[in-house]
């Protein structure tokens, strides 16, 4: 775990609200923003809390320092602490910095290979209005991170700085520019040879053989490549500083060639004869020169290594052509941006001229009208107002296109360019991203194989995003699947559909033999999903494969028993069926049940069907009886495979169907409840599922009916067990005495019955606010207040 402070380079640009907007921005990704937490603020919504923080910061007018502290807490690749652990770590780190009582907004982000928390902290105290800036915060952060790693069992990180300023700048150049730095090349290629030299002459010879030169500059030494690029000798190694080398070899000695070069050049110029006119006899130094090397027996070429600004990781993947494309696009960005802006401006001018011409025609027509002057004055005013509205609309569109031109043609670093190209489907750019750094071995909840049969994107799945390390993130419902080219990592919120999708992705990429790594619970769920989906896979783990086979056999036996019970019909059971030659004694109460129900209904008393039982919610439920008895009226003659057929048929004239026995789709087409013969269940907040379900179905049927008639209404559906995850708040609706919450996800609107307390809490939300659905059907709003 690593915690670091991100300083604001320009104090005027420090804006708490902009930082919170960045933390809350999904950036067209589903797998980015996790839990949002607001601490020590009166507001629960992060953007409202940002306004409150800005008001607090405005009270302190004395300080000229940055009033916002941006903290990042990052975890090792593959680590997935629970939300409770993340909350505790965030609170402990802020308290260690002295910000325990300060206002702050934190957001968990999942869009990179490392789970991390952004924390926006108000450095102004909420009651004293004084500013607090931690002293040597990097030491405090290192100490608290080491302590938290031990307490929560996290992987150990090195919290001591191991690189100097020059090394950090060289590493940044290599990561962002994508080319080797001189310092990095020296450390990788010839640092050992330089450090093993035993004298000044040998040291200069090693430098010369590698195309380098050691020079004095100021009070130290620099190493140059002969083309003007140089680094401090002490940056390569501490023992190469001028003081350390003079202790070993004595006073500094310049290279012999360099010391004699000035006198040699002067002597050579003095001895050279004058050059004649073009076409005359060549001077003596050019006579008998070999103008062609074809007749030369041998030639000696210095084969020493030389520093060149080559693309990084050339030993892993050849990125020469890719880097050339990158450089060419960067050089053409200015011209392309200018052309795009020029086209947008020309379009704006044409539209404005057309609007002016239309206005002139309208005014000319008004001038020709006969009538009172007040009417003409009103028409002129309307024409002028319409013209101004058209011009404002045209200018707004121009500004939008101009901003798009700037966004689409701005300079990108090498890593950002590779990420953008990989997102567009460039396989070579994706391979270059994955070759940039060594992958950490993932051992948690992964699915993979030995031989990759297919590479590239998986058909039928659209990537949610691609990280700078080349990890492709897919979203399947609430499950995030991360593909790093070697393994498929099943991330947080893994449901049955997500695990099945991960297995199918692994089968597509690695074949039928699959390797599963992770916890025992994860392996058990994988085995259950593979058996339930009847996937033709084989696991490398013998125990896991045996478990899958056991589950498959158990499922097959159960299905065979069901089929055998349905096909084996005895004469006694045939006699018990309606229309048989003789009704059994057990079937008589069933036959009389509807008659009694009809008489009770006509008498105004509550009806009971058969030997009904009273459920927990007070609703009468028919007695199902043993297998083989006559089914209840609402199940007779049911078309199991044509559930949308709006027809009810009575088998006997003596049977009466009550309104509750008739499916709702007879009158309204909508989603049908599947709990008609089971006990009354409890919904969100203890709502009776029967009343809440009817209310939800009624509202869904009304909205779907309008949508079928051509109204611009999104698809509405009822909440199900697979809707766990993030959603957008879309409103509250009241249907009778029931309250329904509308939650938007993608293009669908999820209708969920809620209790009164949840409804009061959700009424404080604005349309579009982020909420989350749990597997139990409860709604959680993002953000909290302490």
Q: How would you describe this structure to a colleague?
A:
The chain is α+β, with helices and mostly antiparallel strands. Among the domains are: 2-152, BirA Bifunctional Protein, domain 2, CATH 3.30.930; 181-266, no CATH class; 442-565, no CATH class; 586-661, no CATH class; 684-781, OB fold (Dihydrolipoamide Acetyltransferase, E2P) (Beta Barrel). The chain has 22 helices and 23 strands. The strands form 5 sheets. It has a 7-stranded mixed β-sheet. Strands 18-21-20-19-22-23 form a 6-stranded mixed β-sheet. The protein is globular, with a radius of gyration of 38 Å. It starts with a strand and ends in a 5-residue tail after the last strand. The model is unreliable at 576-625, 665-670 and 675-688 (pLDDT under 50).
What's the SSE blueprint?
Elements: E1 2-5, H1 16-24, E2 33-39, H2 46-59, E3 68-74, H3 83-96, E4 104-109, E5 116-122, H4 137-152, H5 165-177, H6 182-189, H7 191-195, H8 200-209, E6 213-217, E7 220-224, E8 230-232, H9 233-236, H10 242-249, H11 256-271, H12 320-368, H13 373-408, H14 414-423, H15 427-434, E9 446-448, E10 463-466, E11 472-476, E12 479-483, E13 487-490, H16 496-510, E14 513-517, H17 520-532, E15 538-539, H18 542-567, H19 571-576, H20 588-602, E16 613-614, E17 620-621, H21 689-708, E18 715-718, E19 725-735, E20 738-745, E21 748-754, H22 756-762, E22 770-773, E23 779-781
Parallel strand pairs: 14-15, 18-21
Antiparallel strand pairs: 1-3, 2-4, 3-5, 4-5, 6-7, 7-8, 9-13, 9-14, 10-11, 11-12, 12-13, 16-17, 19-20, 19-22, 20-21, 22-23
Helix pairs in contact: 1-2, 3-4, 12-13, 14-15, 16-17, 17-18
